Amino acid sequence: MKDGQLDFSDPAAVRQLSKTLFKVDYHLKLEFPNNRLCPPALSRHNYIMWIKELMDSTTYMMPGAKLLGLDIGTGASCIYPILGCHQRPWSFIATDIDKQNIKWAQKNIDANSCNKRISLFLVDKDGPLIPMDKVTDGTLCFTMTNPPFYKSDEEIKASAMGKARPPPTACTGAEVEMITEGGEVGFVERILNESLIIREEVQWYTAMLGYMSSVTAVVEKLRGHGIDNYAIKEFVQGEKTRRWAVGWSFQAMRPNLSAARGVKGSLAKNILPALTEANIIHLNPSCANAEFAFRFSAAVGALQWISWSWDEEEMQGVGKTGDRIWSRAWRRRGQAERKRKHEQDSTGAAEDEPNKEVLHAFRVYIDDLDDEDEVVVRCRWLEGRDCVAFESFTGYLKATAERVQAEMEAK
Ligand code: SAH
Predict the structure, then answer these.
(1) Quick check: pTM over 0.70?
(2) For a tag on the chain, would you pick the N or C end, based on fewer CB atoms within 10 A?
(3) What is the pLDDT of residues 254-278, one digit of tens each?
(4) Measured in angstroms, how far is the CA atom of residue 201 from the centroid of ligand 1?
């Protein structure tokens, strides 16, 4: 303490503060060695919160499933796996290349009774960053990492002088924690290259980034490989420190807007992923009622979905389909097909199977029906690889809602 204030230039004080915050706010017992990175509680918490949001919004299951994650470079604190295990029934594989970090990480795992759920591995620096041979039980659901930021010692010095990024308080890490070939972008590119081989085996690959320019660089690489299902989140810790996380997936489940585009204007719009939620229409007050919900859901439900369910209470429905069943072209084709099938049936020929594979899924819902001034029809893109299909479906919803309103008002 100095003049009744915590002295942030004193490493021991900063370490103690971090330990205390983890104890008080998260009920964790953590110890960090003097010569290693001391993780600030809030930024680590933010990354775990985002992973929860990402995983929860890209599944049809209820939140709370037993997921398996990988933390690449877990550090002496082993902070992400320990936080993750305390907040969810998850388990983790945690790796590091530094013997001392592994030793301390194991102490922290034991102190927080996580031994059964965290498997720790000392790995080779030139080996794979996603060691799939360590996944012996279940499916790896996500990977996360807070990579070493810098390319070189010179970069650390230059950055401290130029304040290209805020200095990491008094608790700087050891070289192994701070420096990696190609800096953070190089590290994430290695993960990307491995993900391009194992693809859908893992649902989400994610990384935290310290430079805004790295976010752009990583997104460009993702797009260069044709990956359009990605997510960007900005973490703001206090006034000075901003961090970002980027995630990408080869699977077709789409994250909600807050997980996919969780940035507050710091990044250029053109690097953000496609929208996954849309406001379709504000209802006229005379149509903001249960009759509209009934007519509108009946109209949408009449499409040839593989499955469609409408929950009257919640005023929401989920539809899954293998075709663009809402498009005029499909409906025209449907008519021609039915005619052809009818002719075939009369000659005794076998019927064609409709496309049973789900390629698009949407949630359609009516919000705030209690407040008659602000009733909106909204749509959330849940699953699919084709953002043009989502756009065209929202166009169909708008036309349908307008038609239903016109019919109601004409009565
Ligand atoms: N996850 C911790 C530590 C991040 S520092 C936290 O957020 O506080 C980065 C860590 O990555 C260091 O512990 C470093 O030893 C480790 N690391 C560097 N290269 C690695 C590699 N190739 N494989 C696994 N870990 C690595």
Answers:
(1) yes
(2) C
(3) 999 999 999 987 788 899 999 999 9
(4) 23
